[in-house]
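Record 1 of the preview.
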Amino acid sequence: MRRSWSPRSCSHCVEADRRTDRARPPGHVNVSCDAFLATYAAAVSSERLPAPAAARVVEVVRPTRSMTQLNDAVDAVRSLAPLEPTRVARRFLFLWLRVFVRETKRNKVERVNVRIPIPIPIIGAFLPLRLSRAKALKAVALAETSDEPAADVSDYLDSVMGFELVRVDERRGDDHRSLVVVGFD
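->
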């Protein structure tokens, strides 16, 4: 007849407990067997974590800017990128799969913007009609941190879609950058 294993039934653990004369509280399960020379739970403390965890300060709003100014900037970006009435009408008839690629190599810019109509009516009407506040806030942050704010914000607004499946922004060095966005628009 085969016995089921438990920490008390392992001969190594029982023998190790006898040698150290440790008293365990009832119900206490510890990991000690041939794989571990010492008990694992006793060696872990708050001072010895596997990776040091340090507090990180994340600055969302610069101290020189108030929330009302930031809100005004977001509203200004949202008013810069209105949805054309023709696009709204096209969304009722088709769902558009869109692929946007912008690649910069040694100051040479290549752009590809392909729209493929998928004849599924009315689904496109459920996509957002305006630029969302989160995307507008990202455009404001991009304008504040980039070297060429007008070009970078323009490229970002051109690449924004109603429903993005994939967005990859890759930078390899100072002279090579590629942006690929695939989604429904």
